[in-house]
Amino acid sequence: MRTGKLIALSGCCLSFSASALMTSDFTFESGSDSSNYSAKGKPVNTYSVAETLPQDVLSNVYSMLPEGTLVNSAFIAPERYSSIDIDEELNGAEFATAKVTFLNEGAGYRNTLGYFVFDTNNPPINKDEIAAHVIIFPNTSKAPDGEMEEGDTIDLNVQLTAGQTLAFFIIPNGWGWSGSYNNIASLGSWGTPFYSYSNLNPESTSENRRHNVAFIDTQNEFLVLGFEDIYRPDGDNDFNDLLFTVEVSPFTAIDGVNTDGSTDSKYEPLVQENNPEVTVTSVYPSSDTYATMAFEDRWPLMGDYDFNDVVWRYRVTELLNGQREIKNITFDYTLQAMGAGFSNGFAVHLPNVNPANIASTVLTRNGEPVTHQVVQSGGEAVLVVSENLRKD
Prior knowledge:
The protein is mostly beta strands. It has three helices and 23 strands.
């Protein structure tokens, strides 16, 4: 959101008072003493990683989040993570650590950035259930309204263990027009922070409650988060009002990052959006686990309904280009059980894929190529794996 848009919105801001959260409840990553901050709200213990920060990070981000352009709905789909869950892949460490690096801001507001931690399986129902709102950067503005620069970094004083979630919030204009040092002037223009755990946000629909995107960069081993600082759906909804990286160490401690460095579908990969040479690998459920698919072959007419007539263990690997178009898809199926009296077949349906758009297909059984069919149903491709599983 740019300054020019503030004028149109300044008279229509809403206030939310459902929570008892007050500015006095905030704690500070760099300490509460004002001497730990510059007059423009920058922590004095900030250090710069600008020289080692990949030079294409911001260009990649802005190719995905263009200024003033409505965010791609796929980036904020319900299945996309917006916070960071920690799993058990700690590489022998007792806990994971995290640091936050400022990239850029496109806001007219002087926003405040903070974080909180919660039990992944018992998330907070409201703001009052958050154990601590910890302020990282009181004023995330660049000059002349602030002093933040690309590469400014803070190490978070947090020890993350499996089953915890690291989440973030911004306070829209929290530092305010007359802020100083680490003084948080208010809870913002809408009386509430906006959270990466979207259930805490005030909008009336789940879609509008999303206030951030989370992109993953497996090559550089960090996440990029982008926030929208206006009550939605007001504003430009470009989700680039505040951009920062989160580096969790070890990287594999992030749920969704596999031990081989690949990722599953929890996070949107960070790429140069319009570069056709870029490829992205997405694995479901992950490169070192499988999902299970179980069938009842007489449903819903009659039968024992035990759902073990055909049981598969499976994994799906997609290779996509920068426009998220599929270049290659691999289905890995292993038959686990076949409790049916019928001689059942099995096929894979590809929705919205015309057989004419498939360049080639290969089917292997126990490592050996076998003949197969690709048929058309309603203009969509169906890959016939077996017409008789019992025979094959």
